[in-house]
Amino acid sequence: MVKAEGVGEATDADFGFEVLSGDRPVLVQFTAEWCGPCRQLAPVLGEIAREEAGRLKVVQVDVDRDPETTVAYGVLSTPTLMAFRDGEPVWQVVGARAKRKLVGELEGAGVL
């Protein structure tokens, strides 16, 4: 899994703690080692994680290593991005995005 600086990792074991119980929104990237678009998205997520650190937490879930969480949220493709607020999914999109577009979509959904 390609992980950028500032981006955390969530697993089946700690997803509840890392994502569902936070005091700020969490952007989750469901990713895999073999996923080319996921690798393209990694630096974009790293920039967002650093720039929005006070307002947004960014983590990755490896779909191969953490199948329970992947299945629980109905993830069928990678990369899937899902935003959570107060323990509930509030926004979802499939596919890589340019940074400006992704930030705009997060703002439009009220995540940022």
UniProtKB/TrEMBL annotation:
Gene3D superfamilies assigned: Glutaredoxin
InterPro entries cross-referenced by the UniProt entry:
Thioredoxin, Thioredoxin-like_sf, Thioredoxin_CS, Thioredoxin_domain
In its UniProt entry, the species of origin is given as Streptomyces alboflavus
**Entry keyword Hydrolase:** no
Give me any GO biological process, just one: cell redox homeostasis
Q: PANTHER family this protein is in?
A: GEO12009P1
Mind telling me which residue stretches traverse the membrane in this protein? Answer: none
One GO CC term on file: cytosol
Q: Does the keyword Transport apply?
A: yes
Name used for this protein in its record: Thioredoxin
Disulphide-bonded residues: 35-38
Superkingdom classification of source: Bacteria
The molecular function terms in GO held by this entry are:
protein-disulfide reductase activity
Source organism phylogeny: Bacteria, Bacillati, Actinomycetota, Actinomycetes, Kitasatosporales
The entry sums up its family as follows: Belongs to the thioredoxin family.
Q: Which UniProt keywords apply?
A: Disulfide bond, Electron transport, Redox-active center, Transport
Thioredoxin domain segment(s): 1-111
